[in-house]
UniProtKB/TrEMBL annotation:
InterPro entries, per the entry: ARHGAP20-like_RhoGAP, Rho_GTPase_activation_prot, RhoGAP_dom
GO MF terms held by the record: GTPase activator activity
Any one GO biological process: regulation of Rho protein signal transduction
Protein's UniProt name: RHG20 protein
Superkingdom of the organism of origin: Eukaryota
Keyword check for Lipoprotein: no
Alphabetized UniProt keyword annotations: GTPase activation, Phosphoprotein
Pfam families attached to this UniProt entry: RhoGAP
UniProt domain Rho-GAP: residue ranges: 1-169
Organism of this sequence: Halcyon senegalensis
Amino acid sequence: MLSLLYQEGPSTEGIFRRSGSAKTCKELKEKLDSGAEVDLACESIFVTASLFKDFLRNIPGSILSSQLCDKWVSVMDQGNNEEKIKSIQRLIEQLPRANVVLLRYLFGVLHGIEMRSEENQMNAFNLAICIAPSLLWPPVSSTPDIESEFTKKISSLVQFLTENCCRIFGEEINSLFGEI
């Protein structure tokens, strides 16, 4: 999925913003969940993006870990960019290895899309609005006002992560997918 998004996302206007066919997504999700072979290259890239966001939303406790929710939310209240980056790196060290690997590839994709935002209309802000709700959610439900404020803070964090991913994850993030 990520490989397809890396290849096609940067040249696709509105990637992650536009939804794939709900019927197709449901059918493919059922096939994937059953372990059946699925060729996503034959599907719309919007279906792949929708399936990937659904996958992220179904990671127990979220990819950024709901246990660290308060710490993630407070990152953007810290001083300068260097302090934010160091705090983010410390939080990443507390995540399970599988989550860290997936985050690196995810932000490699987002960075590639952002680099061609004039073509695809998906700058770091737009990507964050679309992806943030799939990356972290509060451990307990709350009022709509509090949830709205939470979503804004997480979107700001995801925008910062996208804009600074090379400094956070290392320059090799640009070559994670090799020569595709």
